[in-house]
Write a structure and sequence with these properties.
The protein is mainly beta and 177 residues long. 14% of the residues lie in helices and 46% in strands. The chain is built from 1 helix and 14 strands. The chain folds into 2 domains: 58 residues, no CATH class; 115 residues, Lipocalin (Beta Barrel). The termini are far apart. An 8-stranded antiparallel beta barrel has the order 7-8-9-10-11-12-13-14.
């Protein structure tokens, strides 16, 4: 009798775990796809949270920006002397990989800043903004665009000291290698 109860309990436990597994694995199913990155299903379509797009919310807004760039600055006031071309790398930010990025060597300063991409690509262009981070004072805004498979970020930025004194105001173009 004891082995029958143990067998019955084991069978019930296996059935419960199996049913729970099936329920959990289908929890984010949305038609024939599974919503990712916190997406929710509504009428068999994934509704993506801010920072993600795609049929299953699989693409972060920052994804097209990731890579190495050739950078140049121009139209600086006051004039900036020295090297006006350099390379920078853009990586996903650990803050939110969906819509924040790190731009290394910003303004050829060996400093990394955090930028925010404001929306998913619509008409192949995204608004991007940079604010003061990591010891460098900078405010920047512009656009990330993709034309003929070439990714370009165009920014207008202002640098300033820790006390708020404006250093320079420039335009910067970053072209993905």
């Amino acid at each position: 009798m004891r082995s029958f109860r143990q067998f019955s309990f084991a069978a019930l436990l296996i059935a419960f775990v199996s049913c729970s597994f099936i329920f959990v694995s289908c929890k984010n199913k949305c038609g024939s796809t599974t919503c990712q990155n916190g997406g929710t299903c509504d009428n068999n379509a994934c509704i993506c949270p801010a920072g993600y797009s795609g049929n299953s919310c699989q693409t972060g807004w920052s994804d097209p920006a990731i890579g190495t760039y050739t950078c140049s600055r121009s139209n600086c006031s006051p004039t900036v002397t020295g090297v006006n071309t350099w390379q920078s790398a853009i990586t996903k930010s650990s803050t939110d990989g969906g819509f924040t990025i790190n731009i290394s060597n910003f303004n050829n300063s060996n400093t990394t800043v955090i930028a925010t991409i404001d929306s998913a690509i619509a008409n192949r262009s995204q608004r991007i903004s940079v604010s003061a981070t990591n010891g460098i004072g900078v405010n920047a805004s512009g656009y990330l665009s993709i034309t003929n498979s070439v990714t370009t970020i165009s920014l207008h930025y202002t640098t300033y000291s820790g006390t708020g004194v404006i250093g320079s105001e420039c335009d910067m173009v970053l072209r993905k290698l």
